[in-house]
Amino acid sequence: SQTIHQWPATLVQPVGSPLSLECTVEGTSNPNLYWYRQAAGRGLQLLFYSVGIGQISSEVPQNLSASRPQDRQFILSSKKLLLSDSGFYLCAWSTSTDTQYFGPGTRLTVL
Amino acid sequence: GENVEQHPSTLSVQEGDSAVIKCTYSDSASNYFPWYKQELGKGPQLIIDIRSNVGEKKDQRIAVTLNKTAKHFSLHITETQPEDSAVYFCAASKGGSYIPTFGRGTSLIVHP
């Protein structure tokens, strides 16, 4: 069966520091991968998605970036965090069946 | 692009009552409609989905109905239990698109 991992689970970072969040998927090949941010415990904002290694599409212009160095690995990064980057970051995967499956999330607090 | 409206934003019921959450979509080409349950501090989990070739689907206490003509779909939870308390999201997508459009979520509170 397929599983999705995210780490770290929680992170507290000062403003201006760098960020690296990692997501890996097991049990499937060539998945579509997604990064979402959820603020205030409600809506899901799509940040990036990838349909293959090295292929990244950005949905929202901001100081975040994403990379996909391996088929089942998706990384979210920032060179300098802002207070507004605080939130709950979710990674998700899908295949041709359209269904998205979400990871456990990373709670990021920027102070 | 697709637009998904979800109502209500908050729903409070007594244990044992039924709960109904409704979503409308704008793109008639959408043909896949999943529902997710998100418990506090966790990622959303798929609980049921429906494709446009059927009008209703049931899984124990949960059911989803789809009206393609009116472009709306609903989640029905019967005999609610306190553990049903969570935020529920609907979504709509169409074949060939990798990106579903999500509703803004409904916070369901089941009082014991």
List the helices and strands of chain B in order.
EEEEEEEEEEE
For the sheet with most strands of chain A, the description reads: 7 strands, mixed
Share of residues in helices of chain B: under 10%
* Shape label of chain B: globular
Report the order of strands and helices of chain A.
EEEEEEEEEEE
Mean pLDDT of chain B: 95
* Number of E-type strands of chain A: 11
Describe the global form of chain A: globular
Sheet/helix structural class of chain B? mainly beta
- The gyration radius over C-alpha positions of chain B equals 13 Å
Greatest interface: A-B, 20 and 22 residues
Structural class of chain A: mainly beta
Provide mean pLDDT of chain A, rounded. 93
Describe the biggest sheet of chain B?
6 strands, mixed
Note poorly predicted spans of chain A: none
Number of helices of chain B: 0
Termini Cα gap of chain A: 38 Å
Low-confidence stretches of chain B: none
